[in-house]
Design brief:
The complex is a heterodimer of chains A (about 120) and B (about 110). Chain A is an all-beta fold and about 120 residues long. Chain A has no helices and 11 strands. In chain A, strand 4 and strand 5 form a beta hairpin. Chain B is built from no helices and 9 strands. Chain B is globular and about 40 Å long. The relative contact order of chain B is 0.34. Classes of the chains: A mainly beta (about 120), B mainly beta (about 110).
């Protein structure tokens, strides 16, 4: 059974960079798409982006256009981990951040089949 | 399409049928997935590819799509179905989520 566990700082200051790690157990990250999704308190889900783990250092990525200038998603297949970097933080980035695996069906992106329990990040001075 | 629209909330009595809609331009050309999120929990897929129920999801959950509107139906809603429900689709390489519908069963 694939399990995902997010980790990172619970509190970061405005203008700083958020770095989160998603530790994947029960399966390899290779040859899968991995996403970060966030949820502001009491609000809906917002897709941050995804990366494809090909086992090399240059897996393909796609980002939410509204965050693209500030976000980087990467992975380390040797550690079976996925990373999120979000720069130039503001209070609007306060949210629960989830990592999730994207199931592929007929060579197309399908649904998010495994989710972590989420990591609450508060942006405040 | 860059937006998926859902009603913010709905309420049904136990045993009644709940129908939650999700609409968006061109949605009929995409697969729609539905997620249930109970308070304090991570989202869980209950329907994928418009109308497929994952293993372990009760038969009372079903999905359909007509034109650019997808519908999640919960037949004979139970108290434990009280949750937020989100629709989701892919627009090329971008994931879209609906704003969510809070379902109350009382």
């Amino acid at each position: 059974q694939v399990q995902l566990q997010e980790s990172g700082p619970g509190l970061v200051k405005p203008s700083e960079t958020l770095s989160l790690t998603c530790i994947v157990t029960g399966g390899s990250i290779r040859n899968h798409y991995w996403s970060w999704i966030r949820q502001t308190p009491g609000k809906g889900l917002e897709w941050v982006g995804y990366m494809f783990s090909s086992g090399t250092s240059s897996g393909s990525t796609s980002y939410n256009p509204s965050l693209k200038s500030r976000v980087t998603i990467s992975g380390d297949s040797s550690k079976n981990q996925i990373f999120l970097n979000l720069r130039s933080l503001t209070a609007a980035d306060t949210a629960v951040y989830y990592c999730a695996r994207v199931r592929i069906a007929v060579s197309a992106l399908d649904h998010f089949d495994y989710w972590g329990q989420g990591a609450l990040v508060t942006v405040s001075s | 399409s860059s937006e998926l629209t859902q009603p913010p909330s709905m309420s049904v009595s136990p045993g009644q049928t709940a129908t939650i809609s999700c609409s968006g331009d061109g949605l009929g050309t995409k697969y729609v997935n539905w997620y249930q999120q109970r308070p304090g929990q991570s989202p869980l897929v209950v329907i994928y590819q418009d109308n497929t129920r994952p293993s372990g999801i009760p038969e009372r959950f079903s999905g359909s799509i007509f034109g650019d509107t997808a519908t999640l139906t919960i037949s004979g809603a139970q108290a434990l179905d009280e949750a937020d429900y989100f629709c989701q689709a892919w627009d090329r390489s971008t994931a879209l989520f609906g704003g969510g519908t809070k379902l109350t069963v009382l």
